[in-house]
Amino acid sequence: MKTEHETTAPAKPGWLKVTYDQKKVDKMTDLLSGLKLNTVCAEANCPNLGECFGSGSASFIILGPNCTRACRFCDIPHGHPKDVDLLEPLRVAQATKKLGLTHVVVTSVDRDDLPDLGADQFVRTIKAIKELNPDTSIEVLTPDFQGREDCLDKVIAAGPDVFNHNMETVRSITPKVRNRATYDTSLHVLKYVKEHAPKTMYVKTGIMLGLGETDEEVYQLMDDLRAIDVDFLTIGQYVQPGPKNYTLREWVPMKRYQEYYKQAMKRGFKFVASSPLVRSSYKAKEELEAVENQ
To answer: Which family does it belong to (predicted)?
Structure first.
């Protein structure tokens, strides 16, 4: 009898495969490499890497490349982290200007080893981007900062346009796939930001499907999020990075994504993206523009 770790994941369906312009991807990769920057697009093996790199978009990952946690769904390297690079914020700002980005996403690995858990580097990066790119909107995708409100206060005060922290999955599956993170801590992060940030700052979260969740659990998560007035929700397909990661349970059919979209919009989210290839920072610029133009 196979154990959970030995369970064979279902084969990837043909409709999930993507194609892209390799030359454009190579050009973007060279530019980022020259600035000694990491992107979540490449580090997490995002399926939209080709489309985003090909269109001149990128989500920068700071404080990496190694993460202090080892979540079972994630492909980010786990290991001893490097010292904080104080020049990294400037390089992110320079890359944003060089690429002509009008909206930039900044995320990070978890840095439980640091006294500030990485919050100060977010602040420095936001400020650097604003100085060199005053017209560029900024989205942050933060770790949970262990629920520490002093860390959240720092990032809120820096003034990003969108504050994103991912729930990742439903309550029952959270302890199976998230290392040191809890469902309630993530809810607290989102609730605290919504209550203490300016009303002009949108609060956002994202989840993955295909981990074994039920419809009822997904709807309960939506209700939990709306109870604290979260603005944006992204829903996408979990893609198992490798054999040692949490085993994929299901390739969720498109009709379920469409139903989740309808149910989420009925509950009052300002914007919902629900499709297999959706990732938390995918088309973030278009998401913000759609809401502000309403």
So the answer is: Belongs to the radical SAM superfamily. Lipoyl synthase family.
For residues 59 and 146, which has the higher predicted lDDT (pLDDT)?
A: 146
> Which pLDDT value is given to residue 11?
75
* Max CA separation in the chain (angstroms): 59
**Does 148 have pLDDT greater than 80?**
yes
Q: Is the pTM of this model over 0.85?
A: yes
- Asked if residue 67 belongs to a known ligand binding site, the reply is yes
pLDDT of the residue at 24: 61
Cβ-Cβ contacts under 8 Å for 100 (sequence gap 6 or more): 56
How many angstroms separate the CA atoms of 114 and 257, rounded?
Answer: 38
- Ligand-binding annotation for 151, yes or no, is no
The per-residue pLDDT for range 196-214, each reduced to its tens digit, is 999 999 999 999 999 999 9
Q: Right CATH number for 22-293 from 3.40.190.10, 3.30.70.370, 3.40.50.720, 3.20.20.70?
A: 3.20.20.70
Was 281 annotated as part of a binding site? yes
* Domain boundaries defined on the chain: 22-293
Give the span between the Cα atoms of 162 and 41, in whole angstroms.
Answer: 19
Among the listed residues 174, 172, 109, 178, the one whose alpha carbon sits nearest the alpha carbon of residue 145 = 109
Q: What is the DSSP string of 156-197?
A: HHH--SEEE---BS-TTTHHHH-SS--HHHHHHHHHHHHHHS
Q: Which residues of 40-68 are buried (b: 16+ CB within 10 A; e: fewer)?
A: bbbbbebbbbbbbbbeebbbbbbbbeebb
Residues 6+ apart with CB under 8 A from 39: 32, 58, 59, 60, 61
